[in-house]
Amino acid sequence: MPLFDVYPLYNVTPVSAKGIHVYDENNTEYLDLYGGHAVISIGHAHPNYVDAVTNQVSTLGFYSNAIQNPLQVELADKLETLSGCKDYNLFLCNSGAEANENALKLASFKTGKSRVVAFKNGFHGRTSAAVAATDNPNIIAPINAQQEVTILELNDIEGVKTELEKGDVCAVIVEFIQGVGGLDQATAEFYEQVDALCKANNTYFIADEVQSGYGRSGKFFAFQHYNVTPEVISVAKGMGNGFPIGGILIHPSIEAKYGMLGTTFGGNHLACAAGLAVLNTIEEEQLIDNVNAMSEYFISVAKTIPQIKNIKGRGLMLGLEFDFEVGDLRKKLIYDHHIFTGGASNKKLLRILPPLTIKKEHIDQFFKALKKELEAVEV
């Protein structure tokens, strides 16, 4: 049976990985500056992670949410401590799309409204409401288009005010650093005014932290760079270091009800073990401090390269913008220099999303290769 052909693939076949490196079937070493879409937070095959998952799967890998699971409680407590999101409640699921789907559903349940405001170049997932709130008509099927969504420009505070005052908006959903869309951010004033408008109009402010969360921005969550209090925070990618897990943090003012949300696999024992290993490692190895130090070093080197027209993002969620499309450059980096990087809907942007354990020597290796290719382009 052939695979359904929906992914354009690079001719690389990873068979193992360790730390910030991936190895193919020929034992060729690749520097991973993309982390599988920012999923690899604490490094491939981190011993804490391997031990936790191995021990858990050998005892109890899964049982349903009909029974007590102390690992869920332990994970929630650790997440509260490290994130600083005091008294929020945690609902666990399996992916970023599912997290945003549940965030939007919760907002609609609680406000009694159905319309969503989202933003140009935003990406929130591929499930029904999440994809409808995503600014990409190519992945929205007619069944998704039945959702009521208004897409506004980032920083259009008058547009947000106008839409919310119509009284039918259940949620405003935003990535505080856009991922696939190209690392754009709005102003602090915009985010803070949106937060205030939401609270004045019985509308939930949803922080999509699926890619920007778990320390990647230099704080535990990207919204923490601003003076805002989201009603719901969605998380996933870096949460399990490769094991499928997602969740939403729910403000303590929001009351739960039996049956309101549910999932078969979400919060299973194995997922919680992976999630706890990630949080413990972030804490023990002070990885958020490393994010800030390595980000500062990366940006300082990038500023010395004249072909780089713009440096976007925060922390280790960075983009290098050129005056040419970077598709061929990415191929050169993969095939000639054995370095993984990422692209975006902005075809001139090279995305950098490495494990949070990255060191200066890895950054130096990347820039040496990048400079070589940029010199070749000029010649």
TrEMBL record:
<comment type="similarity">
    <text>Belongs to the class-III pyridoxal-phosphate-dependent aminotransferase family.</text>
</comment>
<protein>
    <submittedName>
        <fullName>Aspartate aminotransferase family protein</fullName>
    </submittedName>
</protein>
<dbReference type="InterPro" id="IPR015422">
    <property type="entry name" value="PyrdxlP-dep_Trfase_small"/>
</dbReference>
<dbReference type="GO" id="GO:0042802">
    <property type="term" value="F:identical protein binding"/>
</dbReference>
<dbReference type="InterPro" id="IPR005814">
    <property type="entry name" value="Aminotrans_3"/>
</dbReference>
<keyword id="KW-0808">Transferase</keyword>
<dbReference type="InterPro" id="IPR015424">
    <property type="entry name" value="PyrdxlP-dep_Trfase"/>
</dbReference>
<dbReference type="GO" id="GO:0008483">
    <property type="term" value="F:transaminase activity"/>
</dbReference>
<dbReference type="GO" id="GO:0030170">
    <property type="term" value="F:pyridoxal phosphate binding"/>
</dbReference>
<dbReference type="InterPro" id="IPR050103">
    <property type="entry name" value="Class-III_PLP-dep_AT"/>
</dbReference>
<keyword id="KW-0663">Pyridoxal phosphate</keyword>
<dbReference type="Pfam" id="PF00202">
    <property type="entry name" value="Aminotran_3"/>
</dbReference>
<keyword id="KW-0032">Aminotransferase</keyword>
<dbReference type="InterPro" id="IPR015421">
    <property type="entry name" value="PyrdxlP-dep_Trfase_major"/>
</dbReference>
